[in-house]
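Changelog-linked ticket: P-hydroxybenzoic acid example.
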Amino acid sequence: MRTQVGIVGAGPAGLTLARLLEVAGIESVVIENRDRDYVERRIRAGVLEQGTVELLREAGVAERLDREGIVHHGIHLQFDGERHHVPLSELADGRSITIYGQTEVVKALIAARLASGLPLLFEVDGVSVHDLDTERPRIRFAHEGAQLELECDAIAGCDGFHGVCRPSIPSGVLRSFEREYPFGWLGILAQVAPSIDELVYAHHESGFALLSLRSPELSRYYVQCRPDEDIGEWSDERIWEELQLRTGLAGWTLDEGPILEKGVTGMRSFVAEPMRYGRLYLAGDAAHIVPPTGAKGLNLAVSDVRILAEALVAWYSTGSTTGLDGYSDACLRRIWRAEHFSWWMTSMLHKLGDDPFDAQLQLSQLRYVTSSYAAARSLAENYVGLTTL
Ligand code: APR
Ligand code: PHB
């Protein structure tokens, strides 16, 4: 088998790249080791930057997103028993965010790919990548009992943090940067109308909590927990109690409802540089991870593949490798900004330990971003997505 671009992984990065290449008339084959149902059910964060929405719209996969996505112009920061509104759009030149489940983005991309009759192979096994530093990199894998080899012009490693592409780069090439946090998020999806119009990020002495949503009938809530928290110890009653405690305010009620799903996610920051080795280009979680506090994960993945698609289009149309040569640096500027922002939001909002000095610094920072125009504008432009990087 032969294709122009071999794409490993059918998450947001791989699927969006495949769509952008299709629109530009470049062939690709996408291979994914899980089944379609698994990929379409994985719940992920739900905040899309305006630039992400615009790209999905240009790629022709935003019909439902435009109908059902909920545009938000602000968020709330809660601390010290008070809730403060941060008017993102006012602060960030009219830009907004859209609340829409990333799972739904993935479903639209898969449907579009299949409707175009283009190759997207689920449940492949034993994926390995070869000859990366030659002009004919190859992907080997098994599919439906057959052992296959796909010869490509370039390979996109979009196989997430635990994928095979990044570890296939010879040792000594990549430099990685990492921070693990001593806490995680316990997230729930609840069948109840959200109790508030916009997201609430709450700092509380018992730990961080976040109120988010998926639709007018579905709420998505999180509480800070241990990274290795046993979900079995969290009955529905205990989860609601903790949410009530951490987000409660006089004169406001957090409505409860049946919990449809619950799970614990660890939190880490990670970057591997450069995002290229020979003809292998890493994109999305394969190259970098952010903690979920700024909701940047999918937005970064989309921004990587936008840059990669443009570089591949230029290469095929003019033979110029300038875009491909600059791919990693172009992505990393935005990635490191998001790494800093996510780390900063995480550090400002979570209970870090029992040191009262830490708590005072956090409260001072929270008061500053909710009272200084300059500090609020800085938070806002990062949250909605910087356009100047
Ligand atoms: N072969 C083929 N596919 C693989 C392999 C492999 N060896 N290893 C992993 N995969 C698949 C995974 O099953 C997954 O579907 O690669 C895909 C990677 O997808 P994500 O982990 O979602 O990563 P990415 O596409 O970079 O998206 C990043 O989107 O949903 C969010 O949390 C995610 O915010 C992050 C962003
Ligand atoms: C979510 O809705 O899942 C969500 C929202 C904001 C975040 C993280 C997750 O910062």
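Closing comment: Example verified and attached. The first strand starts at residue 5 and ends at 8. The CA atoms of residues 91 and 377 lie 5 Å apart.
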